[in-house]
């Protein structure tokens, strides 16, 4: 039987190290994860620092979907004023998350498109340095896959 996840071009240990480094480096970070779309409309969590949080957020359309579909950063600076993703924002609030940023990644698996998602316990939880750090993390993963 085949695995539900695509074959990885980046070692799983390296992916986990990157996620942990992102969470440690961003003050107030709640978690980091990588979501992959092996087929259109199907999303899977490839790696995460908090499986329960991903389970709560994955059913809803949110920033990871936009990062993957449009290949651009997508953010919810504060769930207080989020009109683009109301159900996702409500799920975030229920989990104690108040801001989200998602960054597209050149695929780190043999199939699909992926995104790094970082959540924060703070409203407006990501400053410029945090966004630069997360982009560097996606660059590291993309380079490792090349």
Could you explain the architecture of this structure?
It is a single chain. With 146 residues, the protein is of the alpha+beta class. The protein has a single domain, classed as Beta-Lactamase (2-Layer Sandwich). Helix content is 39%, strand content 25%. It is built from 5 helices and 5 strands. The protein has helices spanning 12-25, 51-57, 63-70, 86-95, 128-145, and strands at 29-39, 42-48, 74-76, 99-105, 113-120. Strands 2-1-5-4-3 form a 5-stranded antiparallel beta sheet, with helices on both faces. Helix 1 (12-25) runs antiparallel to helix 5 (128-145). The longest helix is centred in the C-terminal third of the chain and has 18 residues, at 128-145. It is globular, with a radius of gyration of 14 Å. The protein starts with 11 loop residues before the first helix and ends with a helix. The relative contact order is 0.22. The model is unreliable at 1-8 (pLDDT under 50).
Characteristic key phrases:
globular
Which helices and strands appear, and what pairs or packs with what?
Layout: H1 12-25, E1 29-39, E2 42-48, H2 51-57, H3 63-70, E3 74-76, H4 86-95, E4 99-105, E5 113-120, H5 128-145
Strand content: 15-25%
Major beta sheet summary: 5 strands, antiparallel
Task: Note poorly predicted spans.
Answer: 1-8
Shape label: globular
Examine the coordinates and then state which fold CATH places here, giving the name of the CATH topology: Beta-Lactamase
- What is the terminal-to-terminal distance? 27 Å
Looking at CATH, the homologous superfamily is GAF domain
H and E order: HEEHHEHEEH
CATH architecture: 2-Layer Sandwich
Number of strands: 5
Strand order of the largest sheet: 2-1-5-4-3
Quickly give the structural class.
alpha+beta
User: Over all CA atoms, what is the radius of gyration?
Assistant: 14 Å
Oligomer: single chain
Overall tally of domains: 1
Average residue-wise pLDDT: 86
- Helical percentage: 25-40%
Q: At the first level of CATH, what is the class?
A: Alpha Beta
Our count of helices gives 5
């Amino acid at each position: 039987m085949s695995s539900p996840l695509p074959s990885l071009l980046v070692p799983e240990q390296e992916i986990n190290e990157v996620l942990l480094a992102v969470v440690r480096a961003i003050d107030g970070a709640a978690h980091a994860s990588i979501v992959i779309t092996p087929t259109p409309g199907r999303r899977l969590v490839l790696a995460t620092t908090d499986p329960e949080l991903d389970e709560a957020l994955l059913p809803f359309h949110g920033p990871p979907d936009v990062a993957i579909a449009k290949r651009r950063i997508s953010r919810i600076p504060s769930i207080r004023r989020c009109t683009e993703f109301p159900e996702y924002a409500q799920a975030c609030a229920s989990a104690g998350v108040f801001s989200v940023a998602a960054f597209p990644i050149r695929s780190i698996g043999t199939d699909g498109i992926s995104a790094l998602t970082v959540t924060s316990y703070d409203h407006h939880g990501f400053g410029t340095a945090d966004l630069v750090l997360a982009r560097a993390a996606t660059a590291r993963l993309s380079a490792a896959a090349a």
